[in-house]
Amino acid sequence: MKLSKEIQEKLICPSSKSKLIRKGEKLESISDPKFSYPIVEGIPVLINEANSLFCIDDFVNKINTTIDLQDLDKTPIKKFLLKIFPRIGVNIKAKKNYKKIASILPKDSKILVIGGSLIGSGMEEIYLEGKFEVIGSDVSFGKGTGLISDAHDIPFQDGTIDCVVVQAVLEHVLNPSRCVSEIYRVLSPAGLVYAETPFIQQVHMKMYDFTRFTHLGHRWLFKDFEEISSGPCCGPGMALAWSFVYFLRSFTSSNIIRRILDICSHLMTFYLKYFDYYLIDKPGSYDAASGYYFLGKKSQKALDPKELIELFKGSNFH
Predict the structure, then answer these.
(1) Best exposed site among 48, 76, 95, 105 by fewest CB in 10 Å?
(2) Which residues of 122-134 are buried (b: 16+ CB within 10 A; e: fewer)?
(3) The pairing of beta strand 147-149 with beta strand 26-29
(4) Strand pairing class (133-138; 187-198)
């Protein structure tokens, strides 16, 4: 398996919550043999089908779920075009936040990246060779996938992980609160969580998109964590640009026309993201951001609702 031996020993059955034993190319629950999970090309598929949108056979048969697997193998021409084509979004805080995480965590800490099939924006710091043990889990195969699992049932023993990263993931789960509870459970006593979740961003990843959060709504989601920092990570300029892109898209259902409109809208709005370097920490950005981040430490004391209201940083306009 792609996972280290130490991490393999910490895996549990997502259904029975008991330890797993390897039998050939399968992992089996020691408490109930009916719970058996395949290992596909060195990647364990640990899905509790009773509590997930996904089926184990999806991954055995390499069926597209949240990511188009064929799209991962881009041609050199497509890679070049994507590189020079102006992007409308920019994550202003991610790189700085990951550097902070790397400065807090001891060497060889175990970092679980939920949605880790691909390396997310600004994550390079935690992937530096020899610094941390990064476990990429996802509901799709990708270069970074070491484990197929659903965040509603994270298949690790309590207290196994030193840091959990959920970047652009919680909008795609059915029950964000349950997923955060699972994150809390698998974290070590002083473990860190880092999340980025959209507020003003249109539907993406097709049918796998369910939820948005305000800044305070995002903070309340992590009420069992002590805040280190939080706020907008993608600003109102990016939110405005995406709104214009989807405004134009709404005029057609043709893929060809949509691609043409996307090119036009990107060329017309890419500059808006640069305003966010100035706006990102302004009160208005707390009301109009494209997305928010939260960095926190596992705590034994939950946030009081009255304290939550006092954390409001937006503008005073009604």
Answers:
(1) 76
(2) bbebbbeeeebbb
(3) unpaired
(4) unpaired
3-state SS, residue 248: helix
Which residue in this structure is represented by tokens 């980025």? 196
Do the beta carbons of residue 86 and residue 267 sit within 8 Å?
yes
* Mean pLDDT across 9-21: 97
Q: What is the pLDDT of residues 246-263, one digit of tens each?
A: 999 999 999 999 999 999
Sheet of strand 147-149, all strands in order from the earlier edge strand to the far edge: 20-23, 26-29, 36-40, 43-46, 147-149, 133-138, 110-114, 161-167, 187-198, 291-298, 225-234
Q: Residue 3 and residue 145: Cα distance in Å, rounded?
A: 10
Residue 116 CA to residue 31 CA, distance in Å, equals 29
Token readout for 272 is 């808006």
Interaxial angle between packed helices 236-249 and 255-269, expressed in degrees from 0 to 180 and rounded to the nearest 10: 150
Q: Is residue 74 over pLDDT 70?
A: no
3-state secondary structure 82-150: HHHCCCCCCCCCHHHHHHHHHHHCCCCCEEEEECCCCCCCCHHHHHCCCCCEEEEEECCCCCCCCEEEC
